[in-house]
Amino acid sequence: MSLEDAILYRRSVRLFDENKEIDPKIVEKCLQWATLAPNSSNMQLWEFYHITSPEILKELAVCCFGQEAATSAKEMVVFVTRQDLHRKREKEMMKLETINVLKNSPEQKHESRTKRWQLYYGKVMPLLYTRFFGLFGMVRKLITNVVGIFRPTMYEVSEGDMRVVVHKTCALAAQNFMLAMADEKYDTCPMEGFDSRRVKKILNLPFGAEINMIVSCGIRKEGGVWGDRMRVPFREVYHRL
User: Fold this and answer.
1) 144-154: average pLDDT
2) What is the pLDDT of residues 57-84, one digit of tens each?
3) What whole-number distance in Å separates Cα of residue 130 and Cα of residue 238?
4) Global pTM?
5) Relative to the CA of 16, which of 27, 127, 172, 217 has its CA 20 to 30 Å away?
6) Which residues contact 210 (CB under 8 A, 6 or more apart)?
7) Distance from C-alpha of 44 to C-alpha of 81, rounded to nearest angstrom
């Protein structure tokens, strides 16, 4: 498909055809495309749980309150945020960017650019992503409010704000995945109605992990799409300045 075709084809399918299977290798390939989504500071604080086990699918369907998009799904993908992995990712990114500097920058810039990335991933990112019952977020807010008096600054630095950043990043990956699935003529339905505690228990996730969304997968059945696509008038949401 062209990009336009894939965007127009993708719908939130509420009922999948139980007689039509999908290839888990293709779903896995689409998840590889998902990893190419843009994400904040390239931290990639996400994980994707590709569910093909009939037993786990049934358990997840119960956690999704028995909605047909879950009970008829051939496979599911659980998109998970992992803000608790920020220190691991910071080290990986610092190493990567150091290699990038040495490989792609003029020699006279090596030291200054390497120090910049060491500051960014060694100091700034740990400062932003560290959580401690909201206290670190309060300190960050205080600092940015003072700095903001003198120059433009980013105010969204509380622990709640950074949680939003991680979830936005994960949602971008989920959108990449759903468009890739549409390109394969596979259907999906992103679900936000679920018991997150039970889902975390089923997947054996650590305390710091959070469920972003569950995407059910299959091939649409007649009646699986609830009517014509509806969007509010474009001119209500489009503003050109």
Assistant:
1) 94
2) 999 999 999 999 999 999 999 999 999 9
3) 36
4) 0.94
5) 172
6) 80, 81, 83, 163, 166, 167, 196
7) 9
